[in-house]
Write a structure and sequence with these properties.
Elements (H helix, E strand, L loop, with lengths): L1 E5 L4 H17 L4 E7 L4 H7 L4 E4 L12 H22 L3 E4 L5 H10 L3 E6 L6 H6 L5 E4 L13 E3 L4 H7 L16 E5 L6 H9 L1 H4 L5 E5 L5 H5 L7 E4 L14 E4 L3 H10 L3 E3 L9 H11 L4 E2 L7 H12 L2 H14 L4 H10 L3
Helix pairs in contact: 1-14, 3-4, 6-10
């Protein structure tokens, strides 16, 4: 199979795209790939490092606050039509796949005009503007969360789950002992993303005096940017601090509760590992999509939510204790997460692509 895939901007788009490519390569080892991404975002480094041929186009998102800056956006959007047409015709793919980010719009729009099959994958509960636009002409629409189905034409929309979840099952297990944590004590994991989240991290630090009085251990993944500053504080003996942990989801099965943001990839890892969670959605993302991601789990009684605006040391500890000290609630969350789990997400996407008429 010859495949062009496009996704950009964040790991939440890029890693699902790579998971789809890996599944296609597993099923059809002779497949050839081309990844089209933005010229100045994460994918320009991540994709070539993964050994996948990469082409970049100069593209910018729309600025809602400074409208005059959109002249550049429109200029490159129009210019990219001819650039994308040339790249697509030269590669001559069997299918063109978009996995989110504004870079996908010119790629899949021109692919459709040229008569190629197009597929999109949506990771979040509420679709982004790019996928909403592309859904009108896509041959197949794959969604990670059930709620997303309501936004797309039902006849061509499939609930596949997030393809990164298949990678989670293959991760090496990380034990408490490897991290110097007592395996007999309950463990709460704080993690707000690879770069941390300053506002939440600040409240976690302020909660150290209260955490020191709890009968469980805490692993606080600070993010590399905040690590040195946080380490300078008086850290309780039951709080363990790391800047980053590679293959972190491999620890999830040995965690009693995770306190985290509600990005699409994080949600998929929580579902795959059946890890009870207290979600603190970022209010700084487009369309407040993390809150909507979180509510998909909350409405299924598979997670609890704490708004950042209501976050303080007391509310944080109270919310944690209301979950971790309630064995019935923990059991209920795990059981409900199991009903949301799709173990073969990338395979479902591959099979959907193969079945496009």
């Amino acid at each position: 199979m010859r495949v062009i895939i496009s996704a950009g901007g964040t790991g939440g788009h890029i890693y699902p795209a790579l998971a789809i490519l890996n599944k296609i390569k597993e099923k059809e080892p002779d497949s050839e790939f081309l990844y089209i991404g933005t010229h100045n975002r994460m994918e320009k480094d991540i994709v070539p490092e993964a050994g996948i041929p990469f082409r970049s186009i100069k593209v910018f998102g729309f600025n809602r606050k400074k409208l005059h800056k959109n002249f550049k956006t429109i200029y490159y959007l129009l210019k990219n039509k001819s650039v994308c047409r040339k790249i697509i015709k030269e590669f001559n793919p069997d299918v063109v796949i978009g996995v989110g980010g504004y870079v996908t719009v010119p790629v899949l729009t021109e692919a459709h005009k040229l008569g190629y099959k197009t597929v999109i994958h949506e990771q979040n509960s509420v679709p982004g503007k790019a996928n909403m636009m592309l859904s009108k002409t896509a041959n197949l629409i794959c969604v990670s969360l059930k709620n997303s189905i309501n936004y797309f034409p039902s006849a061509k929309t499939v609930f596949t789950g997030n393809p990164v979840s298949e990678n989670v099952y293959k991760l090496k297990e990380i034990t408490k002992e490897e991290l110097g944590i007592n395996k007999k004590r309950k463990l709460v994991l704080f993690v707000m993303g690879s770069l941390g989240a300053g506002t939440v991290n600040e409240q976690i630090v302020k909660s150290f005096p209260l955490l020191s009085k709890q009968d469980y251990d805490v692993l606080f993944i600070t993010g590399k940017g905040d690590y040195d500053n946080i380490l300078a504080n008086d850290i309780p003996t039951n709080v363990h601090v790391l800047p980053y942990l590679n293959g972190l989801a491999g620890l999830f099965k040995n965690v009693d509760l995770i306190v985290t943001r509600a990005g699409a990839s994080t949600i998929s890892e929580i579902i795959a590992t059946k890890t009870p969670s207290l979600l603190i959605p970022s209010p700084y993302v487009p369309d407040d999509h993390q809150t909507k991601n979180a509510m998909d789990l909350v409405n299924s009684k598979a997670a609890n939510i704490l708004k950042e605006s209501e976050l303080n040391p007391e509310s944080l500890i109270d919310n944690i204790n209301n979950i971790i000290n309630d064995s019935k609630k923990i059991k209920e969350m795990k059981e409900n997460l199991a009903t949301l789990d799709i173990k073969d997400s990338a395979t479902k996407i591959y099979e959907g692509i193969k079945n496009i008429k």
